[in-house]
Amino acid sequence: MSDEVSKAKEAAKEFDMSSNDGAGPNTIFDKLLSGEWPTDKVYEDDRAFGFRDVNPQAPTHILIIPKIRDGLVSLSNAREDQKELLGHLMYVAQAVGKKECPEGFRIVINDGEEGAQSVYHLHLHILGGRQMNWPPG
User: Is 63 exposed, middle or buried (0-12, 13-18, 19+ CB in 10 A)?
Assistant: First the structure.
């Protein structure tokens, strides 16, 4: 089992044990957003925050997150009233992707334990800077 899969399984267990409100425990992203931990910011507006991944899986690996989680811990937890925010996050991801990886990029959202989600705060991965392979996973 890969290290990322192990992290995802542990994160799923922690999320399940955290509470019944669906918000989950605080995450590393809360520390980055508050400024408690430093980050290499590449984008910020009133709804989204983008930064370079500290454990990159490609030459360019950027994460885009909503600044306010509001229960949006995973894509499968999205509510109808969050459709505009989801579209905004995708738009930001493509704009950052085009700027950082003009030859092409991949957007990835890991969802849940079997999707290898290791942080329960929705995040979009922008991966690029090299030829991507198919199929993924």
Answer: buried
pLDDT confidence of residue 12: 59
Mean pLDDT of 110-133: 96
Token pair in block for residue 48: 């989204």
Element (H, E) at 7: helix 3-18
pLDDT digits (tens, 9 = 90+) for 21-71: 556 678 999 999 999 999 999 999 999 999 999 999 999 999 999 999 999
Q: How many CA atoms lie less than 13 Å away from 60 in the CB half-sphere?
A: 23
Question: Which residue, among 103, 107, 96, has the nearest Cα to 136 in the 3D structure?
Answer: 107
- What is the rounded distance in angstroms from the CA atom of residue 106 to the CA atom of residue 94? 9
Neighbours of 4 (CB within 10 A): 14
29's enclosing H/E stretch is helix 28-34
What lies within 8 Å, CB to CB, of 32 at 6+ separation is 39, 49, 51
Q: Which residues have a catalytic role annotated?
A: 123
Using pLDDT thresholds of 50, 70 and 90, give the confidence band for residue 19: low
Tokens representing 130? Answer: 């090299």
